[in-house]
Design brief:
The chain is mainly alpha-helical. 67% of the residues lie in helices and 9% in strands. The protein has 6 helices and 2 strands, in the order H-H-H-H-E-H-E-H. Strand 1, helix 5 (113-127) and strand 2 (131-137) form a beta-alpha-beta unit. The longest helix has 27 residues, at 5-31.
């Protein structure tokens, strides 16, 4: 499915918002760090921790991990969902008719990326008068912690 101008704009605005929040968080963490050596060690440890995700090793989810998780992982996941979910909505509308209520339940172990994307789309659809509800359920305490940190 080709990307619409609206989807491209949403992704751009989201990426800019995430970058702005990440910059503020980085500056906050830098201010409370003792020196440049500790700063470099914290950044390196967070990047090492997140690199282990590809092998299924959970990060520590400290403030530094959350910062880099936000800038590295979240935008890709949210943008992927923003690309896929409109097609699912249109498929459901085609199958069920124009007047249907869409209720999305996100059950998973993630840091709210899909939930975040669904909330963006649900808000957009609701502004267009479409009936959409989104609920997220996550039983993983570590993922809840990073989601709350984000």
């Amino acid at each position: 499915m080709p990307q619409t101008n609206k989807q491209a704009l949403t992704k751009l605005v989201l990426d800019e918002a995430i970058a702005a929040v990440a910059e503020q968080e980085f500056n906050r963490l830098r201010r409370i760090t003792n020196d440049d050596v500790q700063l470099a060690e914290n950044v390196n440890a967070a990047l090492d921790s997140l690199a282990k995700l590809q092998y299924g090793v959970e990060p520590e989810y400290n403030e530094w991990d959350a910062l880099f998780y936000l800038t590295w992982y979240q935008p890709r996941q949210i943008n992927l969902a923003l690309t896929i979910l409109p097609g699912l909505y249109e498929d459901a509308r085609t199958d069920l008719g124009a007047n249907f209520s869409l209720h999305i339940i996100d059950v998973g172990c993630g840091a709210l990326a899909i939930q975040f994307a669904m909330a963006i789309l649900a808000t957009e659809y609701q502004l267009e008068g479409k009936d959409v509800t989104v609920n997220g359920i996550d039983p993983s305490e570590p993922m809840k912690k990073i989601g709350e940190a984000l």
